[in-house]
Fold this protein.
Amino acid sequence: MFVKIYEYHVQKDKVDEYLTIQQKASEIYSQYLDLHTMFLNSKDEDTKWLEITTYNDEIQYNKSMNIINERKDIQDLFEAFQSLLLTDRNEIKEEDFIAISNV
């Protein structure tokens, strides 16, 4: 199983808008990929979020993302998402993992 983890900081007063954008994006992604996403909000830093998504296969992920990223609606959602990030902490950290075991 292929896993993507993103870390970013969302403005405190924009959380509802953030979750709406994520829901719309997930609906589009699920047209192309079998995926499961969890959104975690830090207990220590209320603007810090982790987005953890699992995919069945990295090759299929890469093929599908090439198609998905061409879509205007995804580009618009990503732009809207970026506008919700903290201005002084607008970096999006991204890491790839392979799931080895699930207990």
Summary: The domain at 2-98 is CATH 3.30.70.100 (Alpha-Beta Plaits). Helices lie at 15-29, 58-68, 72-82. The mean pLDDT is 96.
